[in-house]
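Example record

The entry below shows one chain as it appears in the dataset: sequence first, then structure tokens.
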Amino acid sequence: MAERAGRTGSARRRALAPLRRLAARPRIAALTARLAPRSVRTRTTLAACVSVAVVLVAASAAVLLLLRVNLEHSIEAGAREQAQVVGRLAADGRLPNPIPLDNGTDFVQVTDARGTVLAASQNLTGRPALTPTGRSDGHETFDLADLGDEHHQRVTTLTTDTPTGPVTIRVGASLHTADTAEDLTTAALGGLSALLVATVGVVTWKATGRALRPVEVIRSEVAAIGDRDLDRRVPDPGSDDEIARLARTMNDMLDRLEAAGVRQRRFIADASHELRSPLAVLRTQLEVAHTHPDPAVRADLVAGALQDTDRLQSLATDLLLLARLDATGHGGPQEEIDLTGLVRTTVENRGPQPHRVTLDLAAGLTTSGNPMWLGRLLTNLLDNAQRHARHHVTVRLAADSAAGQAVVDVTNDGPPIGAADREKVFERFTRLDDARSRNDGGTGLGLSIARDIATLHGGTLTIKDTTDGCTFRIRLPIRREP
């Protein structure tokens, strides 16, 4: 039973181990996120230091490798040269015993084919022949403990023929010089690398701080700008770098925000003014009608109140449409529209009009957009034309193939609009004179709505120069056949 319970517990621990690892991952990620540097200055400095450190480590490793290879090559060349000298002496039968050592050579030992020591240097006199214990880095290794001290040596082996038979010459060259040079070079490179990384870190920290100082000034200024002081601007560093372009972009954005705020406040003030007058008249009419004893007078007052109610309803509808146009920023659902049919239908569905409407429409012109909004654009222009025409209104539709646009002209034979007022009439709640007063039934928003709709459909709405009458020209992109 105890053994079974132990096996069950082990299996349960193994089954729960992946769950524990999954549970630990969010904690590790949260800890990493807390420890990660948050400022651009810190991240830039760390990136520069790490990059320089990686380059220095790679360069130092390459330098040390080349140094080691060159030093070992020099030592091996010296050892091989001494082995060749001893080989020539052995071949001539003039092998001395003990064998003198050259500078940089630790020992020399000469053995015959049976492993008998024929001659050796002073420090190996009376010692047995050296036997290989293995190989390392392509070289044979030897147990040199008999020398009485730890030695880092490179043993060079040479075989040569003598009058008594072949002999093997082994020369041990000390690598102490190479080790010392490598240690000194490593220490020097480490110290210089650390100094260089520290210098790069300090310079990057200061340079980044100086470069980001204008950004902090811009951030502080933007944070201090409220909705009541949009006339403030961020300081321009006066340079021609990315930060200066950022400052200019921020100031351009603040210009747009300030202009939008001014338009919004003016719009609210104008809307309040436009709503106040009909509401006051409506209240007066209803109060008089409520107390007047004559039924005929009451009926006239109620009829006038209904007219003011209609005007209030039209004004509220226009205000809601303007708010929607400002909020969406696009023309709504897009579909292919038969522009010729849309213009004809819009004019014919208006029913009887105060002035005759003449149509001159080119066939087969199509565009993309929202048919309901484009119909509202034409309706507003027709309402304006009927309001100010003397005898007739003309609607023309033609194609400007060179520009790839459809041109709609809505012309009335009323008084022309002067060049100085041709942009002003498109402002909200603008009426130029008594002829364009609220008594004519307009809300002062129709032309503004019409231009917004044309703009959202990629077109324009302007007033054309005419000598007699007034022409509003719409330009819309023509839908091209694939």
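Notes for this example: The longest strand covers residues 153-162. Residues 434-439 have pLDDT under 50 and may be disordered.
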